[in-house]
Design brief:
heterodimer; A: alpha/beta; eight-stranded parallel sheet; two-stranded antiparallel ribbon; about 40% helix; about 15% strand; B: alpha/beta; 10 helices
Chain lengths: ~300, ~260
């Protein structure tokens, strides 16, 4: 008798969420890349992170790549699109930080509009460290980019009402629910956001990210359990695509920021940093991420190859 | 492990409002009661039309259509001793939300309901009884086995049967409560699904105690393996206890707002 491969069927399915005009996330009814079990949905997407201000704090090796375009976000975005073809651009309003430039929400909205008008891919709008300020920034940016289906990263426990009402309800964009590696809070936040009236297929989630080696096991098990609840237990509150801002985490750990002078025994800083970014991205993709955000072109290339080979 | 299945009991011919509505073919009161139960979170709705000897074959399809038009996502549990009425109801039943459940077969005169379920690919409640209330658990298990054997012969697989050990009233049969729970355990250990009428337990008790007694019995029965119950979903205490028991059984993931879902 011929061998019949066993197939794991699940009752649940991840929602398919459309970003921008046609970038689809999710849709899978099996564990990540388990094409032998069933429909793996849409290919995970890769976004590149850019800032509204010149990224002084980025390691020199990274600044070097973008230095000619990084003082103009629209130029920077197009430079990335032209050279590295990411699926989306993540525009991060670091300049809005009250501890930094403290850029006004109106100014941010203007920049976002200019970038949006100049690019051919969807945008993911990210904020600064202040959740309070982000709520104000997101409200203005969502208004300026109404009904674009852009993702706003993110609504957290302390600002979800304001962010959800503006981004999701009033201005027709997509809310990302962010929790910090807490399974129950991840579910709770999704429930609270849907209770505002936002449809589950108009949201994504960031269950919390860290760089490999920095509590990364918790990130992966949290993601695993979210996916298993969504698929096995058909938990509709968790059938939401996951977007992981990998670069926000990996570029601030010592393996990435220590220069070759600081740690000569560690070798090339660029290689280390790219290694951290790639390993983290591949780790979260294997745990169910539907989109990752990266900075380095080499990371984009390697992660894209990984995704392509896993989905072919 | 699947979530606990709730079957809403409030469309019942014993209620004067429902009896009148069924007689007059007036959909409004029936839809109203259905809506209350669906909104309260009942998975299935039981539709009890009584024996309906006179017009069951016409009445059951009517009420099935009325309910399914209004609640296309809610499956139904067709409840009558009238086999022809059940058959007529199943024939018009839309299976999209889930298989119909026949309520109920037993090991006595109503054992042919098993064959009806097999013939129409329906689910069926198997009452572990023959004539009246079973004397003890030996009898219950014997009837359970008889129903199971009939199902095997008819080609109805066991996951289509919800075995009802027959819950009994606490006021008067207090000494039998542990035995019923033990029956739930024994049937569950055979890998079978179970159900029971929760309001049987609190029948005749003061209104303010009924929910508490039902909720407590239900929680204890769930620990013994109970997989579904026929309940009054408008009783929030009962519904909340079921959700909490499912939580403790790890049938879904905790979140602070779990009672809202």
């Amino acid at each position: 008798m011929a061998y019949k491969m066993p197939v794991q069927k699940y009752s649940g399915k991840i929602n398919e969420v459309t970003i921008g005009n046609g970038l689809k996330l999710g849709g899978e009814s099996v564990l990540p890349f388990y094409s032998f079990d069933g429909d793996i949905g849409n290919k995970p997407a890769i976004g590149m992170e850019i800032w509204d201000i010149y990224p002084e704090s980025w390691p020199k090796c990274l600044q070097e790549i973008f230095k000619d375009v990084a003082d103009d976000p629209a130029k920077w975005a197009n430079f990335c699109i032209y050279n590295y073809s990411p699926d989306f651009i993540c525009l991060k309003f670091e300049g809005a930080s009250p501890d930094g430039l403290d850029r006004s929400p109106e100014e941010c909205a203007e920049i976002a509009k200019k970038v949006a008008e100049s690019v051919s891919v969807p945008l993911v709008i990210a904020g600064c460290q202040s959740n309070e300020k982000n709520a104000k920034v997101f409200t203005k940016v969502a208004e300026a980019l109404a009904d674009k289906n852009f993702v706003f990263l993110s609504a957290v426990e302390s600002n979800y009402k304001e962010v959800g009402a503006a981004v999701g309800m009033a201005y027709g964009n997509i809310v990302a629910a962010e929790s910090s590696v807490d399974l129950n809070l991840a579910k709770q936040l999704n429930i609270l956001i849907t209770q505002l009236g936002i449809k589950p297929d108009r949201m994504v989630m960031d269950p919390g990210c860290s760089a490999v080696g920095y509590g990364f096991e918790y990130v992966v098990t949290t993601m695993d359990r979210i996916r298993l609840a969504a698929l096995q237990q058909n938990d509709t509150t968790l059938q939401v695509p996951m977007i992981l801002p990998v670069s926000f985490e990996t570029w601030k750990v010592k393996e990435s920021v220590a220069t070759e002078d600081d740690a000569p025994e560690w070798g090339s800083q660029e290689e280390r940093a790219v290694g951290m970014e790639i390993s983290t991205a591949v780790g979260v993709l294997g745990a169910g991420a539907n989109a990752v955000i990266l900075r380095h072109p080499r990371s984009v290339e390697v992660v894209r190859n990984f995704i392509n080979q896993m989905t072919e | 492990m699947a979530r606990f299945l709730t079957i809403g009991e409030r469309i019942h011919v014993i209620s004067p409002t429902i009896r009148k509505a069924l007689e007059e073919r007036n959909p409004e009161p029936i839809i109203k009661r259905a809506r209350e139960q669906v909104e309260a979170g009942a998975h299935y709705l039981d539709v009890n039309i009584g024996p309906a000897d006179r017009d069951g074959e016409e009445l059951m399809p009517w009420v099935v259509k009325v309910l399914q038009e209004e609640f296309p996502d809610t499956p139904l549990c067709l409840d009558t001793a009238n086999m022809k009425a059940l058959e007529a109801g199943i024939k018009v039943y839309d299976r999209k939300p889930g298989k119909p459940i026949i309520n109920s077969a037993d090991a006595g005169a109503r054992i042919d309901m098993i064959n009806l379920a097999a013939e129409y690919d329906a689910m069926v409640i198997g009452l572990c009884a023959k004539d009246g209330i079973p004397r003890d658990n030996d009898e219950r298990i014997m009837y359970c086995t008889e129903i199971l054997e009939r199902a095997m012969e008819a080609g109805l697989s066991q996951e289509n049967i919800l075995f009802d050990p027959l819950f009994v009233v606490i006021k008067g049969m207090q000494d039998k409560q542990q035995e019923v729970l033990e029956a739930v355990r024994q049937i569950s250990e055979m890998g079978l699904y179970t159900t029971g009428g929760l309001s049987n337990v609190s029948n005749g008790c003061p209104r303010e105690l009924r929910g508490l007694i039902e909720a407590t019995f239900c929680a204890m029965a769930i620990q013994c393996g109970l997989t579904s119950a026929i309940i009054n979903p408008l009783d929030k205490l009962v519904m909340d206890v079921i959700k909490t028991a499912d939580l403790i059984k790890e049938r879904y993931l905790y979140a602070d707002s779990y009672l809202d879902l």
